[in-house]
């Protein structure tokens, strides 16, 4: 009896023939097929001619205003139109050291492309993201310059080789500093490398972007975890200022019964396994719990061959913290949504067999301003599934507050001056997900650049406790 499934509807489903899962190679191909493939030279040229090259000496183009890293979009598009794709790439990288990555992962639909004046004229926006990709690919295809000797300037430590840390280090090197970037992982990129959906970016062009930084004089030390007060004291002894670009920590979990069952995942290990090529066997039915990250997980489950992928969300579609276009794209790929649905527990004997759920209704607004979901008694039901993934956000790396004198967290975010990234301990600066609670790559780049300027001002004013 011990091996009998305990969910009656699952027994019925098990007797139905299930479609064979896709071969691993097919699933990998589906997983890594790019949502936005590169433009050909002809396509890029034709698309560049659609740009009205707005803006001028007195007013920035609306697309530039909408770009957190303030890339000179009309400038690089004009260079493409003149047939000089490499110069176009240089223009992008002058503003954004992760210009190739952002070309692939930025939600351009709600940033630069939403601001494109063509939209106001009832036309399709210029395909800025793919033009930026065309430009940056052309530049990154050129042989990488050899690493420069570290500049003799004052020394800055950057903790975290994610987008915030890489952007901070790039700007510091441009300003004449010798930044050293430490990361506990073996590669650069942070969440871009191990969490962003592989159909947006698997790994390239991150290594080439890192090599460009090394050519500016940035040093990377991988496999080096800053794991406590002693490690920080060692940094303080060697460096004049420290930038914390450590992002957010592990996934939060719903804390409900049955999370230990095989078949129950949290989102980051699930996506990281996929990105490493260790594709999880998800079975035919997958439940994904959550909002924003849930969109990626659900679409990845479809590519892994699941036949029924259901997102459980405890509010309605209107409150869903995900980009509208991503919800629509997920629906178009066959993802189902069960709104006003909260998981109560994971059910199964030896492995996951179902999620017990309950319907909710919306009550008064809570602290976040969104209407609070309230349980509707008596509406419990079992959703038979083979796999469930909790995608409900990440925990802050609050341990740093115990390790660094004066460092404060407010609402799970490092408290700092938003203009300079300087924290309440003046030698420490911060930026990216650890201060905004989790946003986008291009926002992390913006924070990293701003903090580099803040560090420069601090050190030029004589700061440093060394
Ligand atoms: C599932 C998922 C999908 C996403 N999809 C997109 C997307 O499509 N587009 C988009 O723009 N954004 C996306 N984002 C958001 C984006 O990835 C982040 O906003 C961005 O990576 C934040 O950059 P960061 O440098 O602040 O932090 P991170 O990228 O988290 O980098 C932090 C780095 O610090 C290192 N680190 C942490 N602690 C230590 C320590 N103690 N010692 C040494 N090193 C340490 C980590 O190893 C990591 O490399 C997504 C996020 C998630 C979770």
Outline of the structure:
The chain has helices at 8-15, 24-32, 41-50, 62-65, 73-81, 85-95, 99-105, 112-115, 117-120, 128-140, 163-174, 191-194, 206-216, 229-238, 267-275, 292-303, 324-332, 399-403, 433-436, 441-460, and strands at residues 155-159, 178-183, 219-222, 241-244, 264-266, 285-290, 308-312, 336-338, 341-347, 354-365, 371-375, 381-384, 387-391, 409-410, 413-414, 428-430. The chain has 466 residues and is of the alpha/beta class.
Instruction: Give a short account of the largest sheet.
Output: 5 strands, parallel
Radius of gyration: 24 Å
CATH architecture title of the largest domain:
3-Layer(bba) Sandwich
Count every beta strand, where a strand is a DSSP E run of 2 or more residues.
16
Keywords:
Fumarate Reductase Iron-sulfur Protein, Chain B, domain 2, 20 helices, 5-stranded parallel beta sheet, disordered N terminus, 466 residues, FAD/NAD(P)-binding domain, 3 domains, binds flavin-adenine dinucleotide
